[in-house]
Design a protein that fits this description.
With 391 residues, this protein is α/β, with parallel strands linked by helices. Helices cover 44% and strands 14% of the residues. The chain has two domains: 128 residues, Aspartate Aminotransferase, domain 1, CATH 3.90.1150; 237 residues, Aspartate Aminotransferase, domain 2 (3-Layer(aba) Sandwich). The protein is built from 14 helices and twelve strands. The chain is globular, with a radius of gyration of 22 Å. Keywords: Pyridoxal phosphate, Transferase.
């Protein structure tokens, strides 16, 4: 059967623009690209503990057998939700199968027709998809600009009746820039206008806060946020996600969130892995190593004289802006050929002109690895600068 012409045209356009996405395997290279910030995804200690726990329960059960509302829940699942709610100082928690499921499930269900969603312009694609499924109107504000946000809130208040709910959405650490909004002022602004703040903590949990609890808790804002959403596929090294909020929010999501209702629950292995990873988080060892490596990385970009290329970030995500898909892909390939897994982030994933190399720092990266990869980066950047000058 012939592949549809319209689809062929779209693929051909991507190829012509050098923006065609492909899947690659990174085995054997020094990791500067994965979201496994604490090394939990590869931790033998966590693997062995999970194996023991599953054997103690019933090691023969491979799947959840159904949706959470039918046969897919268990004592272990509900215990994990209770423990996660306590860990994150929330009234309740609801597990989802992934961060994508959590975001589309939340934003397609909670904002109602006539409501308003105001979101940071760099918000994650999964949140955007959820908002597109919502019946509410959505408006963006300038990235991390609280003045822009306040103007949007005022405009929404003036154009909508008082009964309308306004939801304001940001991330505590942005996945493509690694930067952080002023969360205290963000929450204060939401409180001033009596709107509902929602914060995605996917890239903050495990990295920031006491025992990796996240930036919301680090700043003591957990009782002032309507909902927090975090995933376990980053620092926790597992799979799945959680929505943290009031008991009433949990009940609402159980009844109206379609990505929760109409899917099989997480399998026992995922539940045990999440629970065990949080046990390791309480020890805090890897988190301290990660913080030291982030600080060392930032020092080394100054040593190499390339700090002007990097977006300011205190997170595990450090981004070097190199304009143009062709240029950023070429430099990434040169670094990969030297044994370091550094990935290019291309447009349209990021805006044209904001292409970048995205460095993910880990607790297990050595100082030599950090020094070497940044020396390679500086060398290749200078080579391209000389070529551009000659041309």
């Amino acid at each position: 059967m012939k592949f549809p012409d319209r689809l062929t045209i779209k693929l051909t356009k991507r190829e012509a623009e050098n923006t065609l996405r492909t899947i690659t395997v990174s085995e054997g290279k020094v990791d500067f690209s994965s979201n496994d910030y604490l090394g939990y995804a590869k931790s033998k200690a966590i693997h062995d503990q999970v194996t023991l726990e599953l054997q103690a329960q019933d090691g023969t059960i491979n799947g959840a057998t159904g949706s959470r509302l039918i046969t897919g829940s268990s004592l272990q699942t509900e215990t994990l939700e209770d423990n996660l709610a306590k860990y994150h100082e929330a009234d309740s928690a609801l597990l989802y199968n992934s961060g994508y499921d959590a975001n589309i499930g939340f934003f397609s269900a909670v904002p109602q027709r006539g409501d308003v969603i105001i979101y940071d312009e760099l918000i994650h694609a999964s949140i955007r998809d959820g908002m597109q499924m919502s019946l509410a109107k959505a408006y963006k504000y300038t990235h991390n600009d609280l003045n822009s946000l306040e103007q949007k809130i005022i405009a929404a208040k003036q154009s909508k009746p008082e009964a309308t709910a306004i939801y304001v959405v940001t991330e505590s650490v942005f996945s493509m820039d690694g930067d952080t909004p002023d969360l205290k002022e963000f929450v204060a602004l939401c409180f001033k206008y009596q709107v509902y703040p929602i914060i995605d903590e996917a890239h903050a949990v495990g990295v920031f806060g006491n025992y990796g609890a996240g930036l919301v808790q680090e700043f003591g804002l957990q009782d002032k946020v309507f909902a927090r959403i975090t995933t376990f596929g980053k620092a926790v090294g597992a799979h799945g996600a959680i929505v943290l909020g009031s008991a009433q929010l949990r009940t609402f999501l159980i009844n109206f969130s379609r990505s929760f209702i109409y899917t099989t629950g997480l399998p026992p292995h995922s539940i045990a892995t999440i629970a065990t990873a949080y046990h390791f988080l309480r020890q805090g060892n890897e988190q301290q190593l990660l913080k030291k490596n982030i600080q060392f990385f930032k020092q080394q970009i100054q040593v190499e004289g390339i700090q002007h290329l990097f977006i300011v970030s205190d997170s595990a995500i450090q981004c070097c802006l190199l304009q143009g898909n062709e240029k950023v892909k070429a430099i990434a390939k040169k670094i990969q050929n030297q044994g370091y897994d550094v990935r290019a982030i291309l447009s349209p994933t990021v805006p044209a002109g904001a292409e970048r190399l995205r460095f993910c720092i880990h607790s297990y990266n050595s100082k030599d690895e950090i020094t070497n990869v940044l020396n390679l980066l500086a060398t290749f950047v200078r080579e391209y600068a000389m070529q551009d000058h000659d041309n």
